[in-house]
Structures are given as C-alpha cells and as structure tokens.
Write a structure and sequence with these properties.
Length: 402
C-alpha cells in the first residue's frame, strides 16, 4: 500500500503548481520512486479546483460513453458494484448518479448500493469503492480525498462555501387588482356573497390555517379572482408574488398566481433565532398551519437549499403523503435533513390514512399534536427513510382510486 502525504496551505493564493497537472503516469512514477525513497510527496491543490464539484467531475471523466442521461438530471450507468455485492452484472443501467452543485448521490436499484458525497464532507468508504470500480486510479483518488479533507477542515473559509448562494432579494410584484386584506373587508362589513363564500371556505380549513393575518380578497371577476382566496408572498415586508386558491372544487387551475424563482413561503420564520427546527412542507396552507416553510411545490432548488442551510437550524421535511414525495426526500437526504413519516410509523400511525398533508392534520388534530407527530417520526437515517418510504408507498396504494 502506498502512503501518500499531502501538504496544503491555508493561503487561498496557493500558487498553482503544474506538478499535478501532468499526466497520471508521470505522477505515478514520482509516487513510485517516493515510496521507494520513503519520502514525503507534496501535492499542492489549487483553490480554484475546490470550487467546482470535483467528485462529480471525476465520475464524469471516467464514465465516457457508458451512460444514459435522463431529463431529471440523473445519469444512469451500468452498476459497477452489483457483482461484488452478489448480483449478476448490471447491463440495464440500473445505477443512478445524481449530481448537484455541491453533492453527488449514487443509488443502484439492483444491488441496493447507495452512497454519495456533499461538499464539506470527507469521502466515505463506499464512495471510494465506487470510484475505484469505475476506474479512478489510486493517485487521483488520493488527490480527491485530500481535496475533500481540505474542504472539511476549512468549512468556514473555502470549504463549505456553497456554489449556490441564498437569494438576497426578490423584485416587488403586483397583486390582482382590487386585492385588500380580508380583515379590511370584514371591518367594512362587506356583504358581497362571493366574499362571504371565500371567508366560509377559509374557515373550513380549520383555525390554524384561518388565523393567518395576511389573506386577501378582491371583487374583481378577472380570472374568477372574486371566487379565490389570495395568499400574498412576502419577503422582508414587500409583496413579491401571490397565489390565488379557487374555492370552487371544479375550477381549474386550482391555483393561479406568480412565484419568483427560489422563493420560500413564510420565510420570515427563517430569521427567528429561537427556533430549533424548520418544518419544510410542500404547500402554502401546510406552512401556515404549522408555521413552517413552504416550497410551493415538490422540488427544492439549490438556492432554496442554501437559504435553508444558512439558518443553521435543523430542517425536517414533511412531504405530502399521497405523492410519497420521493424526489423531495432524495434532495433532503443530500443535505442530511430529517424526513417525517407521520402516517406510517408503528402499529398505530399518528395520522389517519386519509390525511394527506399538514394542513389537513392540523384541522383534524390541532397544531400541537401535528407538530409532535412530525418530531416523533422524523429521522435522518437513510436506511430507515428507505424502509419507511416503501411502507408508505404500499400504504398509499389503496388510496389512489379515491
Ligand atoms: Zn448495483
């Protein structure tokens, strides 16, 4: 076994050294002779190379012509681990590799091999095995290890600086014409039938949803706005978009509005230093119900993730229970976040089978019980998450026809 010594410097102006840029055989020769001489090898690492996703770059380089790209951003490859894990060789591209700006996730659906890397972490044993299996030479592997270790050590300076930054501001955006606070309409004793029906719809969502102070309504009939409940999107006191929910069940689309990219609903809670947890949910009503943060969808962008991570608080993801939130869970796992499964745990699940989201849970059980159901069933252990996800999918099957 080779011992490789890597020296690095804290100085970000580290001089770029051509030494490592030479071809692999040349480096290997030097390492070989060094080994014989029992001498330290100095392998400078330039700061620029640390800014990219160097683990993905290495995988990318060694998988030429052996992969299929999917629109989801995943790359499918023939799993290099199946044989060593007792399966027959994979020829059906069953291993998915998912890169993001600062992480890589690897997951084989055949042998169950699963590993990954996130900026700021060292390389795990499984990942090294994977890299070797796709043909990354030992010398390059040592360099990757050194780079990951360097970033791990300097999390405050270069190491953890995520390539995606939290959004700093959002442009102001107009509301539907005539929109005013529900409270204002109430104060004026508005007796418009449409307004009263919108207010009735709001009350039907339960106290925890209804007591949010910022709902709006307009008598304008454009886009059927008079039959919709308006939720303004706010950021640092300014209105930056809105969502308008139809109160009539048959109306499509159910939601109209405008959402700026990378926005998080109810983001004011991210500034509350007293909070220990951030409950991350899909919908705006869910966020209101639990005073959590809403994605307004089931995908998480890198900048949204950076925003959440910048708070330093523990994030618990509660995906909608009917979609089983697979995609959102994958993303949550990249950042080591917890995922809650209030509908599948134990002999007696916390939520009844027909409760599919946080808003409905608070309507039925109240906010405290719902919050407790989330905390008690949250886990960041990826093996536990995999099992629960499967349970939940089975559990969800019979509900699909509803
Ligand atoms: Zn496999």
């Amino acid at each position: 076994m080779k011992s490789i010594f890597v020296l690095w410097t804290d100085d970000p102006r580290t001089v770029y050294n051509d030494f490592y840029n030479q071809t692999h055989p040349a480096v290997a020769d030097q390492l070989g002779s060094a080994e014989r001489l029992n001498k330290e090898i100095i392998m400078p690492i330039d700061a620029a190379s640390l800014r990219g996703n160097f683990i993905w770059d290495a995988i990318d380089r060694h998988l030429v012509g052996k992969r299929r790209r999917r629109s989801s951003g995943f790359t499918d490859i023939n799993c290099p681990m199946c044989v060593s894990r007792g399966e027959s060789a994979d020829r059906r591209y069953r291993c998915g590799v998912a890169p993001s700006a600062d992480s890589v996730g690897i997951n084989c659906f055949n042998c169950g091999f699963k590993t990954g890397w996130t900026r700021g972490r060292r390389l795990g044993r499984d990942l090294k095995e994977f890299l070797r299996a796709i043909g990354v030479p030992e010398v390059e592997l040592a360099r990757l290890e050194a780079m990951a270790a360097l970033m791990h050590r300097h999390t405050g300076s270069i190491g953890a600086s995520p390539t995606a930054l939290p959004p700093s501001s959002f442009p102001a955006a107009p509301l539907p014409s005539g929109a005013r606070s529900i409270h204002d309409w109430l104060a004026e004793d508005c007796e418009e039938p449409d307004f009263l029906e919108v207010a009735t719809y709001l009350l039907s969502r339960g106290d925890d949803v209804a007591k949010w102070p910022s709902y709006m309504w307009t008598p304008s009939t454009k886009d059927g706005m008079n039959r919709r409940l308006i939720l303004p999107f706010m950021h640092e006191g300014a209105i930056v978009g809105y969502s308008a929910r139809a109160i009539d069940a048959e109306v499509q689309p159910r939601y109209l509005g405008s959402k700026p990219p990378d926005y998080l609903f109810n983001n004011a809670v991210l500034r509350l230093r007293s909070r220990k947890y951030i409950v991350l949910v899909e919908g705006a009503f869910d966020a209101i119900a639990i005073d959590g943060v809403g994605l307004l969808g089931s995908t998480l962008t890198d900048r949204q993730a950076a925003w959440l991570r910048s708070t330093g608080q523990t994030v618990i993801v509660v995906p909608d229970q009917d979609t089983a939130g697979g995609k959102l869970i994958d993303m949550a796992q990249r950042y080591g976040w917890s995922v809650a499964f209030p509908r599948t745990i134990g002999s007696r699940p916390w939520w009844d089978g027909d409760v599919k989201d946080v808003a409905e849970a608070t309507r039925r059980y109240g906010r405290l019980w719902t919050l407790r159901s989330i905390l008690e069933t949250a886990t960041a252990d990826e093996r536990v998450i995999a099992v629960r996800l499967r349970l939940q999918q089975q559990f969800t099957e019979p509900c699909k026809s509803r």
